[in-house]
Write a structure and sequence with these properties.
With 440 residues, this protein is α/β, with parallel strands linked by helices. The protein has a single domain, classed as TIM Barrel. The protein is 39% helix and 16% strand. The chain has 15 helices and 11 strands. Strands 1, 2, 3, 4, 5, 6, 7, 8 and 9 form a 9-stranded mixed sheet that branches. Strands 10-11 form a two-stranded antiparallel sheet. Helix 7 packs parallel to helix 9 and helix 8 packs antiparallel against helix 9. The chain binds beta-D-fucopyranose. The site of beta-D-fucopyranose has 12 residues, from loops.
């Protein structure tokens, strides 16, 4: 790597991130069914109809994986807690095996000197709650508050930091408007409701965790740089609207207690009754804000109903996701989030990384592309730090190759290679490079 730990502020936290459904193996340990299981079982939704029943079998390989985390010399491990593992029916009686699993995970991290950073929801909604309308149903905020108490009542005393929801845009827009993720809806009314209720659930969970005496609580949003595809005023307007419902909507709700006017032009008629009165809960103060950043999109106007725009392919080098590599966007968002929304709160890059078709060659996995990617994005972080943006940490997505949602197992984001036949883990060159850069 081009950097070492001492090139960053003393208290800067380096980490690796994963999520429950993507690695644990939901067939194990008494977890209940989730909307990702039924989404994946429906033809056409997921590449080769792959699902998370086994995933990386992290559930049964916990110690080995914890050793890998510690071996990377990181300070923090960002993981998520599966709602359906803790409460198989979404509500009611907890699954003792599920609670025990997260208890072992947290203790295993602490025993290895790694700080546990928990995300309460990284997308595997219990099927029983999906049956009740899932994120479309306002009651989900209270259900989520109860889940928060069930899991954090058990592990909250040892959690270093926690955030309720991973990426509200994905929960709302990607899953209810574009239909690319479970529950696979393409409906603007469902979208407006999900986008609002996910923030209401966020605030409710923050309140629940404060009630348990927890601190260091945050919000994690994914941001994508909206680049006008050409110099026309139409492309500029289209990009601005994309930026609105993707990036500004959630940050504005949490930090400004309102939604952007341009987004309300489209979503307003479909919002749930009384939404204007919910900002007291939504804006419950947080201690930090996390940004997940991967790429930019090139936006162009199209005919048709709101938001009347689309994406065109851009000229920059791309990852295996087809995503352009654009580290300037990370710098831009760190600065803008600080200046316009969080004004001094610590910012964390809670996810950043790339997919590549990495393979094992003679026992090693050369991934110089990933080392370059991490270098260029860490240099964007340094640029923001040099300009006074309080960036407090950076977490690589992901510790290991895993279930990349609708794209199945073929998009490899890991620092550690996983052979999905044998489940053997092989640290890639980027893992060794990061471990060397972070050695104390
Ligand atoms: C993020 C998700 C994470 C993973 C990466 C590639 O949006 O949080 O689960 O899919 O993208």
């Amino acid at each position: 790597m081009d950097f070492k730990r001492s090139d960053f502020p003393e208290a800067f936290q380096f980490g690796v991130a994963t999520s429950s459904y993507q690695i644990e193996g939901h067939a194990f340990g008494g977890a209940g069914p989730t909307h990702w299981d039924s989404f994946a079982a429906t033809p056409g939704n997921v590449v080769r109809a792959e699902h998370g029943q086994t995933a990386c079998n992290h559930y049964n390989r916990l110690d080995e994986d914890l050793d890998l985390i510690a071996g990377a010399n990181v300070d923090v491990y960002r993981f998520s807690t599966s709602w359906a593992r803790v409460l198989p029916e979404g509500r009611g009686t907890p699954n003792p095996e599920g609670l025990d699993f997260y208890d072992r995970l947290v203790d295993g991290l602490l025993a290895r000197g790694v700080k546990p950073a928990a995300t309460l929801y990284h997308w595997e909604l219990p099927s029983a709650l999906a049956d009740l309308g899932g994120w479309r149903n306002r009651d989900i905020a209270a259900w989520f508050g109860d889940f928060t108490e069930a899991i954090m009542g058990r592990i909250g005393d040892r959690i270093w930091s926690a955030a309720p929801i991973n990426e509200p845009w994905c929960v709302g827009w990607l899953s209810h408007f574009l239909g690319h993720h479970a529950p696979g809806l393409r409906d603007i009314r469902a979208t407006a409701r999900a986008m609002h209720h996910v923030l209401l659930a966020h605030g409710t969970a923050i309140q629940a965790m404060r009630g348990l005496g927890m601190g260091n609580l945050g919000a994690v949003c994914n941001l994508e740089y909206a680049n006008p595809a050409d110099p026309s005023p139409g492309a500029a307007a289209a990009a601005r609207l994309y930026d609105g419902y993707y990036n500004r909507f959630f940050l504005s709700g949490i930090f400004h207690k309102r939604y952007p006017e341009d987004v309300l032009e489209g979503l307003g008629p479909h919002m749930p009754k009384g939404w204007e009165d919910d900002f007291g809960v939504i804006s419950e103060p947080v201690d930090w804000c996390g940004l997940n950043y991967y790429t930019r999109k090139n936006i162009t106007p199209t005919d048709g109903p709101w938001p009347a725009h689309g994406e065109v392919e851009g000229p920059l080098p791309k990852t295996a996701m087809g995503w352009e590599i654009y580290p300037e966007g990370l710098y831009y968002f760190l600065k803008r989030t600080h200046e316009e929304y969080t004004r001094g709160l610590p910012l964390y890059v809670t996810e950043n990384g790339m997919a590549a078709p990495d393979g094992v060659i003679d026992g090693a996995v050369p991934d110089p592309h990933r080392i370059d990617f991490l270098n260029s994005h860490l240099s964007a972080v340094q640029r923001a730090l040099a300009e006074g943006v309080p960036v407090a940490g950076y977490y690589v997505w992901s510790l290991m190759d895993n279930y990349e949602w609708a794209l199945g197992y073929e998009k490899r984001f890991g620092l550690v290679h996983v052979d999905f036949e044998t489940l053997k883990r092989t640290p890639k060159a980027s893992y060794h490079a990061l471990a060397a850069a972070l050695a104390r």
